[in-house]
Specification:
The complex is a heterodimer. By secondary structure, chain A is α+β, with helices and mostly antiparallel strands. Chain A contains seven helices and ten strands. Chain A has helices at residues 11-14, 19-39, 49-67, 101-104, 123-128, 155-162, 186-189; strands at residues 108-113, 119-122, 132-139, 145-154, 170-175, 181-185, 195-200, 203-204, 214-216, 229-235. In chain A, a hairpin with a 5-residue loop joins strand 5 and strand 6 (181-185). Chain A is globular. The chains are: A alpha+beta, B mainly alpha.
């Protein structure tokens, strides 16, 4: 029998305390402490764990960034049916946000921040740029997925035209949906499947799905993909986001 | 008078309890995440193999409070579960305990004999070493289903960056299903395990805490089946 197997003389015995009484007291104290920790928490778990969870989120972001490859692609399963109108649509305003030309003038997509050639593109100007169609499987934070064909312009194409400066590390996607926005790491924004989308399933984007244009990439969970796009800002630092500020992961890579 | 002999090494005892805690957090938070979309069908499709599509899990079985909270717990505890599992597997490999767990020839015949004994179709407890055949089968398959849970979990965490893995499991929808199936099996085996501890061998509870076990009180010695011969007979005074 290995030496490791032999129980050492218990510390309590050396102190002249009965070993069983010591263990029983220890077990009671342990259960009591656990009850205190769990009792002091709301249904979200112990409050003391929040720091630990924040540290874990930072660690996970490092892992996700290390895993990230521009060559990793989303391919919708060939047998999968396009969701069509079964595709859920989310927005945060009270009703479907619609761009009002009477009130706000012609819709334009502003590209700014750390770029040498800022731009303000109308929908027609956007549609005149090289077009990309991708059949993709979408992943929602809730756990569902859905297939659709997305039509738009590669974000990397827009970035190239805007001549992004080297100190830009993040991109913020802003909208007219009640201040909704989400900021991304630049790498994910430049992934070859990240698009500014104006068409879905062969038709122009409908109001429920983010008309006139929205950002879309399968490398991010749904909530990172801002609909009702108004502005794309290249930034030196991250700028949070609508859901990330409320506690959802900021990186949210897929 | 001391009759106890060492049964579970310190490392085995610590990893056992860390695993129990990590698994509980993973299951609770996982069910909370599942409740955000308690179904498997891709939008616009139907799913063949889950009879409770759309029905949420009772809230008291979930952990994490809300979707984001549960995800944070899930993605934190997963590291504990995996690291702890690797320590356990590495230890039992290097230290030799794996010999008590790997299937032996005639395992299923021995399992059948144990089942017969438990349902009183056989009078005497089958001979065994450290564990009976049923225990060996369960303790050996736990890490296998654990591995399935981890692999399918990776596949649904990163269906784009780890796309080949997701494809290997049949795509996102099926990977999510395998993740759920693996979890269900782990939960069933764990509940069975806890039930048997209290119904057949409560002395094992001491062994997994302090490490010591009195072989003269083993289920084989007591001829114990669930709730039968639960306590060892008092020894005659010397």
């Amino acid at each position: 029998m290995s030496k490791l197997w032999r129980p050492v003389r218990h510390a309590a015995e050396r102190l002249g305390i009965d070993r069983r009484a010591f263990l029983a007291a220890g077990a009671t104290a342990g259960v009591g402490a656990a009850a205190l920790v769990l009792g002091g928490c709301n249904s979200r778990g112990p409050r003391s764990a929040e720091k630990l969870l924040a540290a874990s989120e930072r660690w996970n972001e490092r892992v996700e960034r290390a895993l990230f490859r521009h060559t990793a692609m989303n391919v919708a399963p060939t047998g999968a049916r396009a969701a069509g109108t079964a595709f859920p649509s989310y927005f945060v305003a009270d009703e479907v946000p619609v761009w009002d030309e009477q009130e706000s003038g012609v819709w334009r997509l502003e590209i700014g921040g750390l770029v040498r050639r800022p731009a303000k593109l109308t929908l027609d100007e956007l549609k005149a740029l090289p077009r990309t169609d991708l059949r993709l499987e979408h992943f929602c934070v809730e756990g569902w997925s859905a297939v659709s064909v997305r039509t738009g312009v590669l974000l990397s194409e827009l970035a190239r035209r805007a001549d992004v400066m080297p100190d830009a590390r993040f991109v913020d996607f802003e909208s007219f949906d009640d201040g909704y926005h989400e900021s991304w790491d630049l790498e994910s924004a430049l992934h070859p499947q990240t698009l500014v989308v104006y068409g879905q399933d062969g038709r122009l984007l409908e109001p429920a799905y983010g008309a006139p244009a929205r950002v879309y990439s399968p490398v991010k969970l749904g909530y990172k993909n801002t609909k009702y796009l108004t502005r794309i800002m290249f930034l030196p630092s991250a700028n949070g986001g609508y859901w990330s500020d409320q506690g959802y992961e900021w990186y949210a890579g897929v | 008078m001391k009759r106890e002999t060492p049964r579970h090494h310190f490392v085995v005892r610590v990893t056992h309890w860390v695993n129990a805690l990590a698994l509980a957090i993973m299951v609770g938070s996982g069910l909370r995440i599942f409740n955000a979309y308690p179904a498997f069908a891709r939008k616009g499709e139907t799913f063949c193999c889950y009879p409770f599509e759309g029905h949420t899990i009772p809230a008291w079985l979930t952990f994490g409070g809300w979707l984001a909270g549960a995800r944070h717990w899930h993605f934190a505890a997963m590291w504990v579960l995996v690291a702890n599992g690797l320590v356990y597997l590495g230890f039992i490999y290097l230290h030799g305990e794996w010999r008590d767990l790997v299937p032996r020839r005639g395992l299923f015949r021995d399992v059948w004999e144990m089942v017969k004994f438990y349902v009183a179709r056989r009078k005497d407890h089958p001979r065994q070493g450290k564990h009976n055949a049923l225990q060996r089968l369960v303790y050996f398959s736990m890490p296998l289903f654990g591995a399935l849970a981890v692999v399918s979990g990776l596949a649904i965490w990163k269906p784009v960056q780890l796309a080949p893995l997701t494809v290997l499991l049949g795509g996102y929808v099926w990977a999510r299903y395998w993740h759920f199936v693996a979890m269900s099996i782990l939960v069933a085996l764990s509940l069975g395990h806890v039930f048997m501890v209290f119904a057949v061998d409560p002395y094992a509870l001491r062994a997994i805490i302090t490490g010591g076990y009195d072989e003269s009180k083993s289920p084989e010695e007591r001829n114990a089946r669930p709730f039968v011969n639960l306590r060892a007979k008092k020894e005659a005074p010397p």
